[in-house]
Amino acid sequence: MTRRIRIFIFYLRKILPKMKKFITIISIFLGSILLLAGFSKLITFKDFINIVNSHDIIPDNMIIYCSVFLILIEIAIGILLFSKKYREVSACASCFILSFFSALNINALLTDKDLDCGCFGFINIKLNDYRHVKFDLLLLFIFVLIFLKKGK
Fold first, then answer.
1. In the 8-state DSSP scheme, what is residue 84?
2. pLDDT tens for residues 43-68?
3. pTM higher than 0.85, yes or no?
4. Nearby residues of 149 by Cβ (< 8 Å), 6 or more positions away
5. Which of 21, 78, 110, 132 would bridge with 35, disulfide CB 3.0–4.6 Å?
């Protein structure tokens, strides 16, 4: 690691224990967002299957199973973010999932694919590609903060 990153992580670890209430509020807020997104995808399940299919990374016979798995994982992570006991695990899982989808969005952006995100199902928040990548990276940073905050 470079020196700057080590210094940044050092100061984050000093500041985070003092941000206990802030981390709790952010965790509840993000858990609510994930629950809302998961349930809205359940409501518009066929549209979500079409969106997953448009990315062309999953074989056709596995699309339904992967779509159900993604929705259930999203809802489970949303529920676990409410719990202090499993907050770190759910933040780590969120980081992995968000990293994967950020890479998909960046790939679509670089190859000039016009893909719908489908992030919130019927709530359909329209962000252009660059804003969506920025939003994903902001969420990723917040989940890293939650992950670095040890539940002591």
1. S
2. 889 988 988 888 888 898 999 999 99
3. no
4. 16, 17, 19, 20, 23, 88
5. 78
CB-side neighbour CA atoms (13 Å) of 111: 10
* Displacement of CA 27 from its chain's centroid (Å): 12
Two structure tokens written together for 2:
């470079």
CB 71 within 8 A of CB 38: yes
> What's the token pair of residue 54?
């448009």
Q: How far apart are CA 146 and CA 128, in angstroms?
A: 27
Helices (H) and strands (E) in the chain, counts: 6, 0
Query: Which positions ≥6 away from 74 have C-beta within 8 Å?
Result: 34, 37, 38, 41, 97
